[in-house]
Amino acid sequence: MIESTVDDLGVAEIVMANPPVNALPVAGWFALAAALDAAGADPAVRAVVLRAEGRGFNAGVDIKELQAATSHAALVGVNRGCAAAFSAVYDCPVPVIAAVHGFCLGGGIGLVGNADVIVASEDATFGLPEVDRGALGAATHLSRLVPQHKMRAMMYTSATATAAELHAFGSVLSVVPREELRAAAFAVAHDIAGKDPQVIRAAKESLNGIDPWDPKRSYRYEQGFTFELNLTGVADQVRMDFGK
């Protein structure tokens, strides 16, 4: 589900592969967090490329796992797992380059929004279909990708934005043909890996320190509303209606 390797230049490659749509279960989110933590803790690692295999980058949480659960344990688990994975991207001591293809939805936005650099393929689309699933969350991270009013419109309507749109906003560094995506991400990673590693790690820490808000805290605030919607039964009804 989560594979991790490190090349000779110190670039760690972490790959999500959970067909058919890379929607991760509870265990998958924690495994991703652990892989990112391990990469950052390795002194030989100078940068991380986060990418995926399959039809798209990430489709968020495994809704089937939540629907099959007989208690709120799965909901608590996936919320904590997502928070852990998003935080692991943000807190990784070295820069994380997200290589995005196909769909990047829900939890995928949380990962990409916390990344340091984003490279996307021409077919990549980004969105938060949370309201159609009776949930909320990751508006914190979408706000790091698109302007405030665009984010609100996307949140309310579940509309998606293209890689070209995000490139115009400046949040996506480059847009390339899909077959060139991995190479483009590694080109950025190898450029970073060629710098002094102590300076790069200090730069990452300093940039996090001057962020205008704490994305970890604001995301956990958002999650409280998801809990409320589930506890009141609204989320289940919305998901059932959406599936009809």
Automatic annotation (TrEMBL):
* Annotated GO MF terms: lyase activity
GO biological process assignments: fatty acid beta-oxidation
Q: Which UniProt keywords apply?
A: Lipid metabolism, Lyase
Cited CDD domains: crotonase-like
Pfam families (alphabetical): ECH_1
Q: Which residues form a coiled coil?
A: none
Q: Does the keyword Metal-binding apply?
A: no
Tell me its family: Belongs to the enoyl-CoA hydratase/isomerase family.
Question: How is this protein named in the record?
Answer: Enoyl-CoA hydratase
- Could you tell me which species this protein originates from? Dactylosporangium siamense
